[in-house]
Amino acid sequence: MKKAFITGIAGQDGSYLSEYLLELGYEVHGMVRRNSVAENQQSRLNAVRLNPNFFAHYGDLTDQTSIERLLTEINPDEIYNLGAQSHVRVSFDVPQYTVQANALGVINMLEAYKRISPQAKFYQASSSEMFGLTVEDDGYQRETSVMNPVSPYGCAKVFGYNIVRHYRRAYNLHATNGILFNHESPRRGSNFVTNKVVKTACQIKLGLTDKLELGNMDSYRDWGHSKDYVRAMHKVINHDEADDFCISTMETHSVREMCDVVFKYLDLDYKDYVSQNPIYMRPEELPYLKGDSTKARTTLDWKPTYTFEEMMHEMCDHWLDVLQNIESTR
Q: What is the pTM of this model?
């Protein structure tokens, strides 16, 4: 039985990856940060908490001692570093912590990996935000594109990406990067724009609120489903040669288009309810992301299974169910 160690296991990707690996017969160990309200972390893990091959451990990316202790105890075959301060807009408010978690946290993981579990395979959750303002002539960003980030989050992720490549070459480690473009699901936090749009639209549909305020509605992103992307993570880390891969749908949609899809699904017109508020704008905007995942599709035999519309509709169904259940208990 293979053992996997996952940081950020209580997040969207960590929970889906746990389920996927358990289905494949893995023993799964995850690291979670201590939270005074444990239910906040555990809700995404409801599907795996009772699985006898699932184990949750307390630790923190900024505390190398906890990482070393866990790697020594677990002796994993695969290490997935998904933990991070994951909100780009928030990174402008907490830049120091973002760098501690997203850059220095990667160093802490790599040092512990190199010293304790060098035989393992390592996956780093890199991000399309690293490309920033760079767009190739054909409208895509790919593995060879120049990285030009426009947020503390993106800058910290560039460091993490490059230090993984350095450790791979310098210490002959099977250390990989998955450059994931935006990916969503019903488990995405509602402070992220996709679930903010969906949750508020469902509240409007049920008469619980009457407006939605957003930032830049003409920002374009390449949005896929987290379930598809955790399959890609597994393929990346298990490729014969440690390498870096962009994971994307190769399509782009604006926030405005997203609102149109979501509100139409609920038989509403977004123009009647949605407005822009400058407080939600970033200090430096990133207008466009569209990933070229040709390398992953040809080398790893991976491709997404969800369409953009299917993903958004699934998220709508989820929030309608949640909100209706809440109302029925009042």
A: 0.94
